[in-house]
Amino acid sequence: MMDDLGQIVGQRLKALRVERGLTVRDLAQVSDLAFNTISLIERGKMSPTIGTLHKLASALGMPLAYFVAEGPPKQVVYLRHGERRAAHSAHVVLENLGVGLPDQTLQLLLLTLRPDADSGPDPIVHVGHEFAFCLEGRVEYEVAGKLYVLEPEDSLLFEAHFPHRWRNGQDSPSRLLLVLQATEGHEAALRRHIESVGRGPKRARRGHDDALTPE
Predict the structure, then answer these.
(1) pLDDT tens across 127-143, in order?
(2) Based on the structure, what is the number of domains in the chain?
(3) Which residue, among 92, 181, 182, 89, has the nearest Cα to 139 in the 3D structure?
């Protein structure tokens, strides 16, 4: 049974913030998120977008999959269908495909995107590489101002320090395999995130689709 994303993130976010010795205001400053946004997330009153999760994970030096991970570190992670830990917001179901290895640099995620789901209003920026493989439907990816349309079996690989965002560009669900890799340390991740703030592409309308369009 899937847990509510807001409850999972809220509990883990607060515990990790306290462990790091940060106040809500401290975390708001380093993550470029509003104080009230973080407070609402911690109390389970707001389900964050994937973009917001990226910002929180980068600011705290944790992998995105941390928010849907469970258990102590392992040497081998084997998950059968139906055993995957999943979380969901109003528009996205995020399933963890494998996390828990010591010093793991790969984040393996399966996203089910409901109609008009997107990564949020702000572009995503993080260290390392990002790989997207469309399994079903149609997903629009914008990377550094350029639009890429992924249909079944199309893939996209890029350096994740480029501002990027994604959107389900159709009126039925889409499924996306997302692989993130970052080999740099926590401090480098935080520095790259802060340096990239404010350099994202703009969102524009294109016809009836309200698609992400390149500048």
Answers:
(1) 789 999 999 999 999 99
(2) 1
(3) 92
HSE toward the beta carbon, residue 130, CA cutoff 13 A:
23
Half-sphere exposure for 61 (CA within 13 Å, toward CB): 13
| Rounded-to-integer distance, Cα 139 and Cα 117, Å | 10
CA distances from 49 to 19, 33, 41, 74 (A): 23, 12, 11, 29
Helix (H) or strand (E) holding 142, with range, is strand 139-143
pLDDT in tens, 174-201: 999 999 887 553 333 333 333 333 333 3
User: CATH no. for residue 176?
Assistant: 2.60.120.10
Q: Which pTM value belongs to this model?
A: 0.62
Quote the domain boundaries for residue 54.
3-196
- Smallest CA-to-CA distance from 63 within 109, 1, 19, 118 is with 109
Listed in sequence order, the DSSP H helices in 122-179 are: none
The pLDDT of residue 4 is 57
